[in-house]
Amino acid sequence: MRTIIYSKYNQNRAPRFQTKTIICQDGDELYIEKSALTQEAKAHIDRFRNNYEAVKELYPEIMPVRAQFGDRYVRYPYVRGTGLEEELKRRADSPDRLFEEINNVFQSLYKVNTKNRCEFTRTEEFVEMFGDVDCTGMPCMNPCNLDVIFDNLVVLADGSVSVFDYEWVCNFPVPEKYVLYRILCHFYDKNLRELSAQYSFQDYISHFDFTEEEQERFRAMEDAFIQYVYSGGEPAFTGEQYFV
Questions:
Q1: Which of 32, 45, 98, 169 is paired with 122 by a 20 to 30 Å CA distance?
Q2: What are the beta bridge partners of residue 161?
Q3: How far apart are CA 7 and CA 130, in angstroms?
Q4: Per-residue model confidence as pLDDT tens digits over 205-216
Q5: 149 near 168, Cβ under 8 Å?
Q6: pLDDT by residue (tens digit) across 150-208?
Q7: H or E stretch including 31?
Q8: Strand partners, 19
Q9: The pLDDT of residue 238
Q10: 79: nearest Cα among 198, 178, 165
Q11: 153 beta partners
Q12: Where are the beta strands (DSSP E) in 65-145?
């Protein structure tokens, strides 16, 4: 018998991206299922199959979880392990140590496969999703998985790392460091109370290797992406706080 343990509805998104996420127990099987809430969102769910094929070798040290596909839904096995964010916090006994661990993870896990590295090219798809931001000269990747935030990565018992989401995949050049920037923004937002007590966002981001120009461009990209997904939602940043 199928029992729903958790459910989340993304009805605040634009209709073409509205989904429902549930965690289910069915006998001995535990799984995560995403499904379309609207007819328009069915195409969004259907793209998961191609997304998996596109990004399964993007980061050699991060393996996407293979999903099952049905009509209007995609289903992942529930991966048992330790969340990467939890693992990072376990290793760190101070903010400075935490920043060091994050930088180490960026160097070890987030190495883009050489075959996926490319130069920036302005495309219509990029402008639609991220705005008319010029990233010329920045090392880029194609494709790009925007879902490799710490929350979506699980460290398995054997030390390998899996990502269980690949909803947002770009099949055009995107700066490699933009992905790292948005990971850091999500992390700051989730741990806002603890981090903001000691660091403004600008102090926090200064512990990582971003120029002022990169920060300005990536912030604009993230604001545009939020508008793209939520179609009239609030900007990604308000003052020094970051909102998902």
A1: 45
A2: 62, 155
A3: 29
A4: 999 999 999 999
A5: no
A6: 999 999 999 999 998 999 999 999 999 999 999 999 999 999 999 999 999 999 999 99
A7: strand 29-36
A8: 36
A9: 41
A10: 165
A11: 163
A12: 68-70, 73-77, 82-83, 117-118, 140-141, 144-145
What tokens does 132 get? 């008319």
* Chain mean pLDDT for the chain: 92
Contact 7, 22 (CB under 8 A): yes
The reply to whether omega before 143 is within 30° of 0 (cis) is yes
CA-to-CA dists, residue 69 to 54, 74, 90, 182, angstroms: 16, 5, 35, 28
Q: Residue written as tokens 């999903």?
A: 67
> Could you tell me which of 171, 174, 169 has the C-alpha nearest to residue 121?
174
Encoding tokens for residue 22?
Answer: 């549930």
Which pair of tokens denotes residue 6?
Answer: 């958790």
Burial of 9-34, coded b for 16+ CB within 10 Å and e otherwise, reads ebeebbeebbbbebbbeeeeeebbbb
Q: Which two structure tokens, joined as six digits, stand for 197?
A: 């007590």
Q: Which residues pair with 32 in a beta bridge?
A: 23, 76
Output the six-digit token pair for 165: 């989401």
pTM exceeding the 0.85 threshold for the entire prediction: yes
